[in-house]
Specification:
2 domains, Rossmann fold, 13 helices, alpha/beta, binds cytidine-5'-triphosphate, single chain
């Protein structure tokens, strides 16, 4: 059998089934996954077994069904740890509003939800519920949270629902679920075995016990890069300044820091063991010379205040000086005037392999947006202007450029 007819050959997939009417389609999904070459085990909730039997799922998967947290006759029960290690991916179909709520809030009160909480590999969720539930603020909050955690959603479609109404909320067809899984799971592991350092987000420079100097960076570009590289097999050290963003991928080791000096220590100590570093962080160039450990009070009603600042270390320039043969260094540049020329100067001065020039002039690009527009300038003098695209798509372009470097 070739890769075309068995695109999931060699993959072990856990099919999670929760208690909705669409559970009757779970055996078909299992069959299609087996046909695509995967080895499949099912994990079900008690309510799922109201709609589909264990015998059916065991027959189509040729594996025992995991349904009880404490069942000593089943090798996978009480050992959700071993099942989570066994699976290369997990697809939850159907995913009820209830189990999505539990996942989003870390609740583990039965066999399936316990497994979901401990699972750290690609996770696909196929929601199925009535339209009112789908549109409820609570469901949306939970789904958004899971998406931010890196869960892949195979969205529901519109059609006739079990409750007799017509609207959005029908589980995606098993054929479409498999197609989406194949697309995602076939991502080329071209960064396998590579360690990559990424800095992301702003830095906060402490003034006193309640105040700091910061900037508007959110960290989205750096986090998108971390996800992209991790999914392509890299081990990522993500040194992150203060941000609300979350990471889910098991290949990402996140190191949270506050100040430029902390970021400097975290980055310089890790760089020697890495094949590449990409510095996206908006590092504060200056910090207060003195940091008060109490709240600074006004002296009197009229006087202003002068804050003496000193320069922070330049992390990128330091890594440029440390760089050894075989290591690759990528910087970002944020310029308002003479953009290309200044970016080119930074590339040479900081000993970079290429630099990513952020555009501040385009709507939808820069701090806080989910999209970005960049120009990549390399050591050989190639200038590649990009179009406005998602930060994840920009991350892909940067990863592709790294792989292509001589
Ligand atoms: N950078 C860094 N450490 C610093 C300052 C910047 O690692 N102390 C990195 C950023 O992460 C980015 C690159 O240097 O990859 C360029 O940052 P930018 O703010 O555009 O330039 P600066 O070098 O700070 O120069 P200037 O502010 O004068 O333009």
């Amino acid at each position: 059998m070739d890769e075309m007819s068995e695109p999931l050959r060699g993959k072990r997939i856990i099919v999670g089934v929760s208690g909705g009417i669409a559970a009757y389609k779970a055996p078909l999904l299992v069959r299609l996954l087996v046909k695509a070459g995967a080895e499949v085990t099912c994990a079900v909730t008690e309510h799922a077994l109201q709609f589909v039997t264990e015998l059916t799922l065991e027959t189509v998967s040729q594996h025992r069904v995991y349904s009880q947290l404490f069942d000593r006759s089943n090798p996978h029960s009480t050992e959700h740890i071993s099942l989570k290690d066994w699976g290369d991916a997990l697809v939850l179909a159907p995913a009820t509003a209830n189990i999505i709520g539990k996942m989003a809030n870390g609740i583990a009160d039965d066999a399936l939800s316990t497994l979901l909480l401990s699972f750290r590999k690609p996770l696909f969720v196929c929601p199925a519920m009535n339209t009112q539930m789908l549109e409820s603020p609570a469901y949306r909050r939970n789904a958004d949270r899971l998406r931010a955690d890196g869960v892949h959603f195979v969205d529901s479609t519109s059609g006739q629902l079990a409750c007799g109404t017509t609207g959005d909320g029908r589980m995606a067809e098993p054929e479409n679920i498999v197609a989406q899984m194949v697309k995602q799971l076939q991502v080329e592991q071209d960064f396998h075995g590579k360690k990559i350092l990424i800095t992301a987000g702003p830095t906060y420079e402490k003034i006193d016990s309640v105040r700091f100097i910061g900037n508007f960076s959110t960290g989205k570009m750096g986090f998108a890069l971390a996800e992209e590289l991790a999914e392509r097999g890299a081990q990522v050290h993500l040194v992150a300044g203060p941000t609300h963003l979350t990471t889910q991928h098991p290949n990402i080791e996140r190191i949270d820091v506050h100040s430029a000096c902390e970021m400097y220590d975290a980055a310089t100590s890790r760089f020697p063991s890495c094949q590449a570093a990409i510095l996206t962080a908006a590092v504060a160039d200056f910090r207060p010379e003195h940091q008060a450990d109490h709240k600074i009070k006004k002296q009197n009603d009229h006087d202003g205040m002068t804050l003496q600042l000193v320069q922070n270390p330049d992390i990128l320039a330091t890594l440029g000086a440390m760089k050894q043969a075989g290591q690759l260094l990528v910087g970002f540049a944020l310029e308002t005037d003479n953009e290309l020329e200044n970016a080119q100067k930074k590339l040479t001065k900081k000993n970079l392999d290429f630099i990513v020039l952020n555009s501040l002039h385009d709507a939808g690009a820069g701090f806080g947006y989910d999209t970005n527009k960049v120009t990549i300038i390399d050591r050989q003098g190639n200038v590649t202007p990009g179009t406005l695209k998602s930060k994840r798509a920009v991350a892909k372009d940067i990863a592709d450029k790294i792989i292509q470097q001589p």
